[in-house]
Write a structure and sequence with these properties.
alpha/beta; D-Maltodextrin-Binding Protein, domain 2; 2 domains; 8-stranded mixed beta sheet; two-stranded parallel ribbon; globular
Length: 321
């Protein structure tokens, strides 16, 4: 009888003990792993959001850049961190939904992380130099179908959304264009500006100033509907390429096992920050659109995005050299 009474007392006390042990999060700085190089669009956005979260949540959110292998090096490092709410990752879908189908990973992409939610999205544009002979997608495809056309495109990284958009055009237009590889978006953009290569897909966040100045000519957008960032630019779907859609989604993830109350507080803080009036001009300047997604929506989104790119990578036989 005594042991049963003690068990009952312990069971009744367990919830209050758990609450007492629940950390007053955040009580110290939070590390924001960005698995891409400093200075790029993802890093720039992450720093703006981290600054706002530091203010709103009362503790520093410190960006830690760990780039390499399409973001998988930084993801592997984050996967080893304690799931206590003091490590999060901000990265695009090319890292969490595409890279697992291209690389041998030291972590389980499906189980090592939980999604806090989508943060922002950005369309991609098909770009050519200002003096390019093609003034439309139809012109470019016609040139590409000529024998010995001499056309080349810039690849900013195997498995990047810019690379996937290029492969989608080659597949759907039934054309072949020679690839020139570059170490990241910055060098690829400069190569097109300099006329070293004649075509590039790139997220709006990296190229809007060049489009607005006329240094690069945007032939089409990769979203379903025209982007409010550049409403005069038609979509591929408008131009006769049904199903052509490539969007760069930037999301926040946390190591699996991070307490749900912390995930929910992070999610709410991110949504509030991205919706705040003073953030809107900064996001517009970065050519990104805020996304609001409850944490419950992440599993279905992740599975659909991962399945889409797994099938595409296999169909195009895309491999890391």
């Amino acid at each position: 009888m005594l042991s049963r009474r003690l068990f009952t007392i312990a069971a009744l006390a367990a919830p209050s003990i758990a609450r007492a042990q629940e950390p007053d999060w955040p009580s110290r700085p939070v590390t924001v792993v960005v698995p891409w190089a400093a200075g790029g669009p993802t890093d720039a956005f992450a720093r703006i959001l981290a600054q706002r979260l530091s203010t709103d949540l009362g503790r520093p959110f410190v960006v830690d850049n760990r780039d390499g292998a399409n973001g998988t090096i930084g993801m592997a490092a984050a996967a080893r961190m304690r799931p206590d709410g003091y490590t999060v990752v901000i990265t695009p879908n090319s890292t969490y939904a595409v890279a697992p189908h291209l690389y041998q990973l030291s972590y389980d992409a499906e189980r090592a992380f939980v999604g806090v939610g989508l943060l922002v999205s950005s369309p991609l544009f098909m770009l050519v130099p200002r003096n390019a002979p093609a003034s439309s997608v139809a012109d470019y495809v016609a040139l590409a179908k000529r024998p010995n056309n001499g056309l080349t495109y810039a690849n900013a990284g195997i498995g990047a959304t810019s690379h996937l958009a290029t492969e989608m055009l080659l597949q759907m237009a039934e054309i072949e264009v020679a690839e020139i590889g570059y170490r990241g978006g910055g060098p690829a953009i400069q190569a097109v500006l300099a006329g070293e290569t004649g075509m590039l897909f790139m997220p709006a966040a990296a190229v809007m100033p060049y489009i607005q100045s006329g240094e690069l000519r945007a032939l089409a957008a990769t979203t379903r509907a025209r982007s409010p960032l550049a409403p005069a630019i038609p979509t591929f779907q408008e131009l006769g390429y049904p199903g052509f859609e490539v969007v760069e989604h930037v999301a926040m993830l946390a190591p699996a096992g991070t307490p749900e109350p912390i995930l929910r507080r992070l999610n709410a803080a991110c949504i509030a920050a991205l919706r705040s009036p003073d953030m809107q001009p900064r996001l517009q300047a970065m050519a990104v659109t805020p996304e609001a997604q409850p944490i419950e929506a992440w599993p279905a989104y992740f599975r659909a995005e991962s399945d889409k790119w797994r099938d595409f990578v296999r169909a195009r036989n895309i491999r890391v050299q």
